[in-house]
Amino acid sequence: MQQEVILAMLAKEPSHGYDLRARLRQALGPLGDAMNDGHVYVTLTRLEKAGLVSSEQAAGLPDRPDRKVYGLTAAGQERVTGWLAEVSWPKPDLAEFHLKLIAAAAAGLADPLTIVDAQRRELLRRLRGAQRAALAEPDGSAAGLLLEGIVLRLQADLRWLEACERNWTPRKDPS
Amino acid sequence: MSDTGASVLRARGLRKEYGKGAGLVRAVDEVDLDVASGETVAVMGPSGCGKSTLLHLLGGLDRPTSGELWLAGQRLDRMGERALARLRRDAVGFVFQAFHLMDELTAVENVELPALLAGRPARTARRRASALLDRVGLADRARFLPSALSGGQRQRVAIARALVSDPQVVLADEPTGNLDSQATVEVLRLFEGLHEAGQTLVIVTHDSRIAATADRLISMRDGAFIDETRLTGGSTGNLGSLAGLNGLT
What we know:
The complex is a heterodimer of chains A (175) and B (249).
Chain A: H1 3-9, H2 17-28, H3 38-49, E1 53-57, E2 68-72, H4 74-85, H5 94-107, H6 112-136, H7 142-168
Antiparallel strand pairs in A: 1-2
Helix pairs in contact in A: 5-6, 6-7
Chain B: E1 7-18, E2 25-36, E3 40-44, H1 51-58, E4 66-71, E5 74-75, H2 81-91, E6 92-95, H3 107-117, H4 122-135, H5 151-163, E7 169-173, H6 181-196, E8 200-205, H7 208-211, E9 216-221, E10 224-230, H8 236-242
Parallel strand pairs in B: 3-8, 3-9, 6-7, 7-8
Antiparallel strand pairs in B: 1-2, 1-4, 4-5, 9-10
Helix pairs in contact in B: 3-4, 3-5, 4-5, 5-6
């Protein structure tokens, strides 16, 4: 995930690291469970070195050891604006899989249908996990929306695998 | 019968042929299957792979050409017509893609019909049917005709009907095939609920979402099982990487 995500969260108001962490968890739901808490602090340090954020010491509380409040610099503000305008969509690596099937078939190394089946098994396992997590989210949950996106992408990938299967199934001779 | 173990459904060398000579088609070709009590099994495969024919054989709607088949401990392939009809009525719940509701009966009348045909008292049948409609979230639609219900609601009525005899197994043929995505989610929730309640389910489908509710997935091609896999073990750790959260973990 991009540093810009952390940066953009500071656009609302200057915040403590733990505040950002809590907001990330809220938005990610169960997907945030595996999040490494140190990541936010590492990222903030990097952003500060790059001059995109600046920090101030704040009066600490006994149960909140981190006392730095981070805010955007002018350069940081500009970067956030640029990032929001950017069109970036993760590219699934379809070409690699496609070329794998072609190479396997050409060399007679493996049956493309076996490779398709293995891929489908893995995708369906992930779909099962995503779907269960999505169904467990209450209506209107932010994390539920993210999980729905994962479910839809997996479905699209599975549909493409069906097309791969049709393509690589040996044609029967009409008799 | 003790040799069926804990399997609700058990098939050995199940085969269904149509036509003869050069035109012979093996719609189901030497299928072995065990479905344990409480298990959800999905069968996926391209159209014409024989999965619907298989489901019809498993539910006693059609007779195998050869092979052995047990349902709820009883041998189906040798059973007489009347005994088979009784077993179908008492031990199997069917859910079809096209719902197959009676248009002239209300929702609650559709649900109670199998119980009435099985000779249950009218009041018992009605009470059970009403409770099931409540379970599928349609208590307030009990007196509606199917024509006044949405596709998703009709399928939920059909699912309630499939459960009215407390069947040993529910057999579903493309249960989400005619539904939009919102109605599909409603049916998904219901199937997940049935699964958690310990209902044994066999689903044949194209729809990866409904297949993903299964414990076990079987791929079928040209009438035969070619691949089988357990789907349990999906974790949100994997999902994070799917959502592009790699850098956070």
